[in-house]
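To the wet lab folks,

You asked to see what we're planning to order before we commit. Fair enough. Below is the target structure as C-alpha cells, and below that is the sequence we designed to fit it. If anything looks off to you, flag it before the synthesis order goes out.
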C-alpha cells in the first residue's frame, strides 16, 4: 500500500509539473537586428572609396591593392589600371564616358596575362584570349557586336 501511495503521489506530482510547463506562455525567440544604419549589404570585395568628381583617382581596394585613373564629370575616362597588393598590375582597361571601351587586359598575380579582349560600350566584342598562370593560351572566345558569345 505504501508503494502504491508513493507511485500515485509521484504520478500526480509529474502531471502537475507537466501541466504547469505546458500552460506557461512561451515567448517567441527575439531576432535582434542592428539599426538600419549599421546593416552592411555590400559584398566583401566592394571597393570603398571617397571618389572626387574630377581628376586623377587613386583608390584603395580590399586586398591592399589599388586602382588609378582619371574621372571626369563623375565618370571614368581613358586608361585605368588596378594593382595587386604587391604592386604588380592586376588589370588595364580603357574607359569612355564611364563605359569600358577598348583593350582590356587582366593579369595573374604572378604578372602573366590571364585574359585580354576588346570592349565596346561595356560589351565584350571580337576575340578574347585566356591564358594559364604560365602564359599558355588555354581558350579563345568570339563575341558579336551585342556582346553575345559565339559558339
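Sequence we intend to order:
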Amino acid at each position: 500500500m505504501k508503494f502504491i501511495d508513493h507511485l500515485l503521489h509521484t504520478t500526480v506530482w509529474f502531471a502537475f509539473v507537466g501541466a504547469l510547463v505546458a500552460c506557461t506562455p512561451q515567448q517567441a525567440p527575439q531576432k535582434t537586428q542592428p539599426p538600419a544604419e549599421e546593416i552592411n549589404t555590400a559584398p566583401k570585395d566592394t571597393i570603398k572609396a571617397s571618389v572626387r568628381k574630377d581628376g586623377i583617382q587613386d583608390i584603395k581596394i580590399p586586398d591592399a591593392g589599388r586602382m588609378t585613373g582619371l574621372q571626369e564629370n563623375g565618370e571614368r575616362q581613358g586608361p585605368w589600371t588596378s594593382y595587386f597588393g604587391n604592386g604588380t598590375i592586376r588589370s588595364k582597361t580603357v574607359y569612355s564616358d564611364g563605359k569600358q571601351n577598348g583593350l582590356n587586359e587582366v593579369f595573374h598575380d604572378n604578372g602573366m596575362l590571364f585574359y585580354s579582349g576588346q570592349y565596346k560600350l561595356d560589351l565584350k566584342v571580337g576575340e578574347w584570349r585566356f591564358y594559364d598562370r604560365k602564359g599558355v593560351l588555354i581558350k579563345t572566345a568570339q563575341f558579336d557586336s551585342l556582346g553575345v558569345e559565339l559558339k
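Structural context that might help your review: The chain is about 15% helix and 45% strand. The CA atoms of residues 65 and 85 lie 4 Å apart.

Thanks,
Computational group
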